[in-house]
Amino acid sequence: MFFFEKKNQKTFICLAFHCRGGDGGSLGKSLLFRKDGASLPPRQHGRRAPICGAMPEPIALYVHWPFCLAKCPYCDFNSHVRERVDAARYGAALRRELAHEAERLGEKRPLASIFFGGGTPSLMPPEVVADVIAEARRLFEPLPDIEITLEANPTSVEIAKLAALREAGVNRASLGIQSLQDKALGFLGRQHDAKQAVAALEAARALFPRISFDLIYARPGQGLEEWRAELRQALALAADHLSLYQLTIEPGTRFATEYARGAFALPEGEEAAALYYATGEEAGRFGLLPYEVSNYARPGAESRHNLAYWRYGDYLGIGAGAHQRVTRDGTVVAARRHRAPEEWLSRVEAEGHAVTREEHLAPLDRAREALLMGLRLSEGVSPARLQARTGLTLAEAVDPAMLTACLEEDYLRWTPEGNLATTWEGRLRLDALLPVLLR
């Protein structure tokens, strides 16, 4: 069984509402695996069922920039603070690794999206971003409406680059706002204040066809009405997409140390659930629907890149610590790369790639991953697509008795389209439901 790391390709399986990070685009969080690194019970299906369908689906590309100005106390992503970064050298390595992966695919695949995540990719020189985009366009067949997202923080240094990043080819900005309150931003260790956050949103809206930003809530001492007021302010500023994550204590972070010694407490149980329900209510009043556990959008404005993850599509990941899932020889192949930027760089320059582990996933592993990701979506999991992507039927992938029980308890439901989806109650319990539901 293959192991994913944590979130830097932000399809993270911090299940239910216990998630936070960027708009999701960078996928380096764990998929099939518990947050302590242990896998689910390895029941293998013995055969390697092929992927159905002759025509390859469009692929998504994740590009990881691992460098930050400072490490936030809640952050367990693959991010690093360095006094000096050779951006041109790192950019050249990104292009080389991308060329290596394109050659291995053996065909010029359609490219649906590019996502620059981190770290803080808005620290990248715009010319490096432009060169990576140009190389991706050369190696693949970009769709006419290709989505190209870059994560940015609302500091004055980074916001000054937005126009140049737009000229480089980025057409969607994802801003790490995190809060619109100065006190909360200080607690979260952010490098900007609320005034800069609003200015960044206004600048991004003027430059990019699409924007998103994320907020962290369920902070220490945050009451329900306080959160509603902050969220309404954010929704009034939002264009079409918002990512809303409850603060989670991740092992190895500064917050984990402080939390363990009782420096602060977080909302739990019914209090946390009330915050989650209020989030959906307020977003709905502004026309943003919860298309995923922590992501809200106007119809048609969903993150296409993240949907590739959640619908269990193919995606490439390049850069330090990046992960990927691609279809080769009729099955899904998982790969991960060196996390340390310096080690990744030297490996790519020497060998053309920095993959540390690669594995052909067994059908049951693929089905588990597809269900873990797909049940985060409001649309749910299509049994037909599940079988096409994994070779297994839904009945082969889940425990029938547990499925019946979850449906009877109103944690799961069948959609009018015939998909298996979670209810609001089910999303609150998703982390508990999945281990018993999956075979």
From TrEMBL:
Signal peptide: none
InterPro entries named in the record: Aldolase_TIM, Coproporphyrinogen-III_oxidase, Elp3/MiaA/NifB-like_rSAM, HemN_C, HemW-like, rSAM, rSAM_sf
GO terms (BP aspect): porphyrin-containing compound biosynthetic process
Keyword match Iron: yes
Database matches in SMART domains: Elp3 (SM00729)
Cofactors: [4Fe-4S] cluster
Keyword tags: 4Fe-4S, Chaperone, Cytoplasm, Heme, Iron, Iron-sulfur, Metal-binding, Oxidoreductase, S-adenosyl-L-methionine
Highest rank taxon of the organism: Bacteria
Domain Radical SAM core, first and last residues per copy: 53-286
Major site of localization recorded for this protein: cytoplasm
Keyword 4Fe-4S: yes
Compartments, record wording: Cytoplasm
Family: Belongs to the anaerobic coproporphyrinogen-III oxidase family. HemW subfamily.
Purpose: Probably acts as a heme chaperone, transferring heme to an unknown acceptor. Binds one molecule of heme per monomer, possibly covalently. Binds 1 [4Fe-4S] cluster. The cluster is coordinated with 3 cysteines and an exchangeable S-adenosyl-L-methionine.
Name this protein carries in UniProt: Heme chaperone HemW
Classification of source organism: Bacteria, Pseudomonadati, Pseudomonadota, Alphaproteobacteria, Acetobacterales
